[in-house]
């Protein structure tokens, strides 16, 4: 009997469109001889749309997963849980929800309560990797090098703007970066060259979150490493995007047709080994399982800084994460998806051996 694979995508996050692209690519890679595919599209309003089992050919005939958006298939979360997840047989959930209400531990907590295996990070690691302020505290406690930073809540900004601006100038200097604490895809991030730009950048960041992070600028290269696994994770060869952008924002990442990947990144053997090692360390510090992408800065003096850990990196067939694995050990896109599903079943099976009561 084939495994039922439930793919959750869309969602209420501002990264909704990124999720659609990821989900479409993943679903078209699924081996239909092993899996029955059950797409579950979550609208921007939080309505779950569950058309039932769909074949790959049905998806290919429609524009960017249009089938699961049918209004007649819309349900509440409760209805979806009953009509879909209660079906008998072996099942696994693949959450492809970037950002809040998906990458932050909320969906993961629901799957834990339902006792259904799911791909990717657990509740805690999902929550702390998405919250950049908490993540930076974990990295600091572990002694992992990172750029100087400050973190503030909106109420702190409302009460004492002058102090925050002075503190940013003294500790971080200019230019510096301001970003929402819990968001990805470079949305809401600003590079600020002076106090007035910082004020505007803070206002922009608070449109997306009630907490933000300020960071000093590190001049150099941004190096990425794909990590996967549970207790004994593996790190890919490092990669980097070759571009001429001073600030690698949302438009640069997703709309620049001249963007090119360098995989493996042109680094010495010693530095490559060091970056892979620190990527695994950052992964484990956050309690990650399944997968994550660790982003680092390499400055002009060869100093390495961990920037952030992405619990659900971009996953289209031209995204850095899957391409890094293909160029590291030859793992093809469809094979990578199956490996991640296997990690989900392994973690779930191990949890069943734990006795929570005496």
Low-confidence stretches: 66-71
Count of beta strands: 15
Which geometry do the CA atoms define? Answer: globular
What order do the strands of the largest sheet run in, or round the barrel if closed?
4-3-2-1-5
Q: How far is the first residue's CA from the last residue's CA?
A: 36 Å
* Mean pLDDT rating: 89
> How big a fraction of the residues is strand?
15-25%
Which range best describes the helical content: under 10%, 10-25%, 25-40%, 40-55%, 55-70% or over 70%?
25-40%
Structural class: alpha+beta
Described by its quaternary structure, the protein is single chain
Largest sheet: 5 strands, mixed
Secondary structure tally, helices: 13
Order of helices and strands: EHEEHEHEHHHEHHEEHEEEEHEHEEHH
Radius of gyration: 21 Å
Quick overview of this protein structure:
The chain is α+β, with helices and mostly antiparallel strands and 358 residues long. The protein is built from 13 helices and 15 strands. Helices cover 38% and strands 22% of the residues.
